[in-house]
TrEMBL record:
Transmembrane segments: none annotated. Residues 229-314 form the 2Fe-2S ferredoxin-type domain. GO terms for molecular function: 2 iron, 2 sulfur cluster binding; metal ion binding; methyltransferase activity; oxidoreductase activity. It comes from Xenorhabdus szentirmaii DSM 16338. Keywords: 2Fe-2S, Flavoprotein, Iron, Iron-sulfur, Metal-binding, Oxidoreductase. This is Vanillate O-demethylase oxidoreductase.
């Protein structure tokens, strides 16, 4: 953990605020496109994860754009911050897969809402590599389209803004132009990501050509189960109950087990456990439905038992 003084704060829209932190140049050199930090907030608020904004590769500043929801204690804390205040951060981390672009194929970049923050670094890096990424930015309104000007400056006429007020875009039509050599870079809401992955699976666009990151907070409702079930951890001999509204990973930790984890969002694959007995409701973003059906693997940060019992190799 390290403390950073806030060197600048900008209001980018009615709900999005930008924070720039004073940082030595050698630390900036460690940032890669898609890097994020854990912001450690005071009291019971806990930690939140925010991606870095990078319009150059390498980065020249440690900048974050954060969407505030004033009903949340974390947003109230962020709103209270002023220039010169110090914030506590851990990082950088990076879960955004870096697709090494071969000579062939296009790079298609899709950002949804505040998911644009890691996308800025991806676009900047592709341009430094001499690529010409095709960028699509989906927002509720033009007023929420933060960094649209900067992305236009980077990508020129290959940048397309899609909002309810302006240019409309049919996602299926956009994805329908993909060729097997193309690469897709995506960051946005679960709804956007699911739509993209479902389409790509249906049309057999290779998953290894898709780099994505989900933009949400850990332990959303989708990670929890509506009904409890029993779990046996075979190697440790521990039996435990997963309660309604609890994630399986949480339940394993509460029982004193120490499964590995990283993203806690079904993206990184670190928490994978072998399933010895029981059916799984797969909610991860790692496996295709076909892979999930035969994998014998569960990602407990987001997935659950389909029935009332699960036996795991743990
Ligand atoms: S912790 Fe990353 S997939 Fe579960």
């Amino acid at each position: 953990m390290k403390q950073y003084p806030i060197s600048n704060i900008r209001t980018l829209s009615d709900t999005i605020r930008e924070f720039t932190l004073a940082t030595p140049a050698w630390e900036l050199a460690a940032l890669t496109p898609g890097s994020h930090f854990r912001w450690l907030m005071p009291g019971e608020i806990g930690a939140r994860r925010y991606s870095c904004v990078m319009f150059t590769a390498p980065a020249t500043a440690l900048t974050f754009a954060i969407k505030l929801n004033m009903a949340a204690a974390s947003s109230q804390y962020l709103q209270s911050l002023k220039q010169g205040d110090k914030v506590s951060l851990e990082g950088p981390f990076n879960h955004f897969p870096q697709l090494i672009a071969p000579a062939e194929g296009r790079d298609v970049v899709i950002a949804g809402g505040i998911g644009v923050t890691p996308i800025t670094g991806i676009v900047a890096r592709l341009i430094v590599m001499g690529k010409h990424p095709e960028c699509h930015y989906f927002t509720e309104s033009r007023a929420q389209a933060v960094y649209a000007t900067e992305l236009t400056n980077l990508a020129g006429s290959s940048f397309h803004l899609h909002s309810s007020e302006g240019q409309k875009c049919d996602l299926a039509e956009l994805l329908g132009t993909l060729q097997p050599d193309d690469r897709l870079h995506v960051c946005g809401s679960e709804r956007l990501l699911s739509a993209v992955l479902d389409y790509c699976d249906d049309y057999q666009f290779p998953r290894q050509h898709i780099a994505f990151e989900l933009f949400t907070t850990p332990f959303t409702k989708a990670d929890t189960t509506e009904e409890g079930y029993e779990v046996e951890a075979a190697e440790s001999g521990i039996r435990l109950q997963v309660a309604a509204g609890q994630s399986l990973l949480d339940a394993l930790e509460s029982a004193g087990l120490e499964p590995l984890y990283d993203c806690r969002r079904g993206e990184c694959g670190v928490c994978a456990l072998k399933v010895i007995e029981g059916d799984v409701e797969h909610r991860d973003f790692i496996m295709t439905p076909q892979e999930a059906a035969t994998s014998g693997i569960i990602y407990p940060c987001v997935s659950h038992a389909k029935g009332c019992f699960l036996k795991l190799e743990l």
